[in-house]
Write a structure and sequence with these properties.
The chain is 46% helix and 13% strand. The chain has 3 domains: 1-76; 107-290, Rossmann fold; 295-362, Arc Repressor Mutant, subunit A, CATH 1.10.10.10. Helix 6 (126-138) packs parallel to helix 7. With 364 residues, the protein is an alpha/beta fold. It has helices spanning 18-28, 31-34, 39-44, 49-76, 91-94, 126-138, 153-163, 187-195, 214-225, 239-249, 266-274, 283-290, 295-304, 309-318, 325-332, 336-348; strands spanning 79-83, 102-107, 115-119, 144-147, 168-171, 199-202, 228-231, 253-256, 278-279, 323-324, 352-356, 359-362.
Length: 364
């Protein structure tokens, strides 16, 4: 990764596409030589005259007015940059239809791990929160969860990762510098992500204000980084569906959680399922496709070997799913007093979690 050096200055040019950048690399052999190139060099590299003129006008302005501000922000916020030609540039992202010329990074981008995007409605339901927390909690700890830092399912996904000490990455639709983190209400969440071994990333330079164009465009990066996309909830015009579409266009797996058809958030997800998305009933459905270990199953098996008979019976009935206490009483052969006391002890030991309304799941 690089700081703000001449090698990366050209990627700040607003009209620098990945195609144009590759044309320059092919001609100059090294990014170090691009900044010193002449207008004639750029013409030989295949750029159109109008774009060349725009670049050199912008270049002069960048040196006089912008460079110093960028340098201060890069240093203060510890921002680095990965250009398309860098060996550390994520391979999954490099192979999408429209890869970004570069990505700006705050934090740690662990490119050697498996990434899963978790996205959904900004106006999530209680069910959406419950399912997001449950699935992320139970998934393999080595999996990196990618989302967009937005309200709703995105922020729940990030928060659940932090709570369970799992790595997470937020892809922003604007600059990743302190002033431009969006939404501003999630500034502290963004800092927590960085401090806990995750990262903020964006294709947009620091000081870029997000807008209605940048958000849909960033969704291709969320999908592009990942092996698969999990859609929790989605309305008919949800941005989560754009992410899912980007995943499908680039040959990635799409998972979807079935919804109550009376919910507004069901339309997008159920449409995905109708069109061939993989249905998710539990983390096992995800783990089998991505060749991951189901953490909940490991926890369950470990506990069964070391607990008493009442706890074994209840653990088998939970089976990693949210189960109401009435179901446990009815199917365990134990009376309500024993079930209640056993659940209380298991919760104190940290083996299970009460989701509310006397519904329990295995805890990671």
């Amino acid at each position: 990764m690089e700081g703000l050096t001449k090698e990366i200055w050209p990627v700040f040019f607003p009209k620098m596409t990945c195609k144009r950048y590759q044309e320059l690399l092919a001609f100059f052999d090294s990014p170090k030589n691009i900044w010193e190139g002449t207008e004639n060099d750029f013409l030989k590299a295949g750029w159109k005259k109008e774009i060349i003129e725009n670049f050199f006008v912008w270049k002069k302005d960048f040196i006089l007015k912008q460079k110093d501000d960028y340098e201060k922000i890069f240093f203060r916020d510890e921002i680095s940059c990965l250009t398309y030609d860098n060996q550390a540039y994520p391979k999954n992202l490099k192979n999408i239809f429209d890869p970004p010329t570069c990505i700006f990074i705050r934090g740690t981008l662990a490119i050697d791990k498996i990434f899963l995007a978790v996205v959904g409605s900004r106006k999530n339901t209680f069910y959406g929160r419950q399912i997001t927390e449950k699935l992320i909690t139970e998934l393999d700890n080595n999996l990196v969860i990618v989302s967009g830092l937005a309200f709703g399912i995105d922020s729940i996904a990030h928060q659940t990762c932090l709570k369970n000490k799992k790595s997470t990455i937020a892809v922003l639709g604007g600059g990743i510098n302190t002033e431009n983190i969006y939404p501003k209400e999630h500034h502290n969440l963004a800092i927590e992500i960085i401090n806990n071994g995750g990262a903020l990333i964006s294709e947009y330079p620091p000081l870029t204000e997000p807008n209605s164009f940048t958000f849909p465009k960033r969704n291709r990066i969320i999908a592009g980084l990942c092996e698969a996309v999990l859609v929790i909830e989605a309305t008919q015009k949800s941005g989560a569906l754009i992410t899912a579409e980007c995943a499908l266009q680039n040959g990635r797996e799409v998972f979807a959680v079935p919804q109550n058809i009376n919910s507004e958030n069901s339309y997008g997800v159920n449409e995905l399922l109708k069109n061939g998305a993989a249905l998710v009933n539990s983390t096992a459905d995800i783990s089998s496709v991505l060749n991951l270990q189901n953490t909940a199953d490991c926890v369950k098996n470990k506990i069964i070997q070391t607990t008493n008979e009442q706890e074994k019976i209840i653990l088998k009935l939970l089976d990693g799913q949210g189960v109401h206490i009435d179901f446990l009483i009815k199917n365990s052969g134990l009376n309500s007093q024993i079930v209640n006391s056993t659940l209380a002890f298991m919760e104190l030991k940290g083996w299970i979690k009460n989701l509310g309304n006397m519904t329990y799941i295995l805890n990671n």
